[in-house]
Write a structure and sequence with these properties.
single chain; 475 residues; mainly alpha; Rossmann fold; three-stranded parallel β-sheet; three-stranded antiparallel β-sheet; 12 strands; cytoplasm; Glu/Gln-tRNA-synth; ATP-binding; tRNA binding; ligase
Length: 475
């Protein structure tokens, strides 16, 4: 048997971080077993489904590095096939026309509420003669579900889950306007697409009982199911925007690498011993369903940041520059940068990258720490840097002239000059380096000072020092 999984998002918004994890689990399981992952856009809600959302979902999956097999299936385009199955069940006596009015349905709900029980359709048209039907009312088609016994799902994550059939009513398959319901469409599509494993959030667990009954009514094999606990915030509450319930594209804009986000998501609810860092190949070889926990996973931004920092340090310098360039149109303007790096700045950024990536945990942090490369002269110092320079300005007296005398400008040669200057004036190296850093970068912290000076070059270094030591007004 070829394993076939599917990811089936509704295009009513961005690719949610939880959806990204579900897609990843489906992708890994299919890869692990040499199978396929299919992609289905569940766009039957025509009012809320948008082309922009579909584009965002596809873009998010591609950015995460999750590809799919075959063409994208659009559920709405298969409505005729869904109706065909509903009518087949009707012809076989496994479904029936229901003429209950909205008022009757409301009365059923109200009675259930008063009696303190779940609201269920009472089956009043289940065995009724259609000749009694009101002529001006279009019926729905309902499944004639079993009323005795039980419906069982042997879930790969949740274990054996049992529903008493008396507690499940006859669900609607086809609405009065002829459109299929979600429950019917999902079953028909999964069957026709040859899906062998349905891996999805546990908010669909109740749907599993309903859908199993449709499979059984059609005489189709029920796929294996695995219902994954949802992601919660660090406080244990349902994941919200303040916790990180954002679209995948938001994480890209915040400066996370796809490889880091993918690694973080795989460990949300799944474990493989104590291992935290996985290559893509290790994920594929190790992933299984039995090691998915039954408790909700907790989203932790600090862990994600640390993991992202790890991957940034491992990344090639050129790859990081390219990754920043991808989000530069979004994050550049507020920093006085255009949508692309000028060639000279790009070259400096590449040269400075070994020092920049050691400290930063996101690409946004990295660009901010590279402020000294693109800051306009004379630099505007932040409060800490201004304090350091004010305190140490006197200790920098004469250093410009000494640096002007340097012929071969590199980190080693400028370090030697600064060290000698500190020794001559009887100061510790840090007492000279701190105000020097402030004058050159506008910040109290930066990559290694001498690397900074080497990347800036002799002319820019001296110009910035002259600006600050002469008291030139900030830009």
């Amino acid at each position: 048997m070829t394993v076939v999984t599917r990811f089936a998002p509704s295009p009513t918004g961005f690719l949610h971080i939880g959806g990204g994890r579900t897609a990843l689990f489906n992708w890994l399981y299919a890869k692990r077993h040499g199978g396929k992952m299919l992609l289905r856009i569940e766009d039957t809600d025509r009012e809320r489904s948008t082309n922009a959302a579909i584009a965002a979902i596809l873009d998010g999956l591609k950015w995460l590095g999750l590809d799919w097999d075959g063409d994208v299936v659009h559920q709405f385009s298969r409505a005729a096939r869904h109706r065909e199955v509903a009518e087949t069940l009707l012809a076989q006596g496994r479904a029936y026309y229901c003429y209950a009015t909205q008022q009757e349905l409301e009365e059923m709900r109200e009675t259930a509420r008063k009696e303190g029980r779940p609201s269920r359709y009472d089956g009043r048209w289940r065995d009724r003669d259609p000749s009694e039907a009101p002529k001006d009312l279009k019926p729905v088609i309902r499944l004639k579900a079993p009323t005795e016994g039980e419906t069982v799902v042997e879930d790969e994550v949740q274990g054996r889950v049992v529903w008493q059939n008396k507690d499940l009513d006859d669900l609607v398959l086809l609405r009065s306007d002829g459109t299929p319901t979600y429950m019917l469409a999902v079953v028909v599509d999964d069957h026709d697409m040859g899906v062998t494993h349905v891996i999805r959030g546990d908010d669909h667990l109740t749907n599993a009982a309903r859908q199993t009954q449709i499979y059984q009514a059609m005489g189709w094999e029920v796929p294996k199911m695995a219902h994954i606990p949802l992601i919660h915030g660090p406080d244990g509450a349902k994941l919200s925007k303040r916790h990180g319930a954002l679209g995948v594209e938001a994480y890209r804009s915040m400066g996370y690498l796809p490889v880091a986000l993918r690694n973080y998501l795989v460990r949300l609810g799944w474990s493989h011993g104590d291992q935290e860092i996985f290559s893509t190949e290790e994920m594929i070889q190790s992933f299984d369903l039995k090691n998915i926990g039954r408790s909700p996973a907790r989203f932790d931004f600090a862990k994600l940041e640390n993991l992202n920092g790890h991957y940034m340090r491992l990344s090639q310098d050129e790859d990081l520059v390219q990754a920043v360039e991808v989000i530069l149109p979004e994050i550049g303007p507020e920093r006085g940068l255009g949508p692309t790096f000028p060639p000279e700045l790009r070259e400096k950024l590449l040269a400075a990258m070994p020092g920049l990536k050691e400290r930063a945990k996101t690409l946004v942090e990295l660009l901010d720490s590279a402020y000294y490369l693109y800051a306009q002269r004379p630099l505007r110092l932040d409060d800490k840097a201004a304090g350091l320079l004010a305190d140490g300005r006197a200790r920098l007296a004469g250093i410009v002239e000494k640096l002007e005398a340097v012929d071969e400008w590199n980190a080693r040669s400028v370090e030697a000059v600064v060290r000698e200057h500190a020794e001559v004036i009887g100061a510790k190296l840090g007492q000279v380096a701190q105000p020097l850093r402030a004058a050159l970068t506008g910040r109290a912290t930066s990559p290694g000072l001498f690397d900074v000076m080497a990347v800036l070059g002799k002319d820019e270094t001296l110009s910035r020092l002259q600006d600050q030591l002469s008291g030139a007004p900030a830009a």
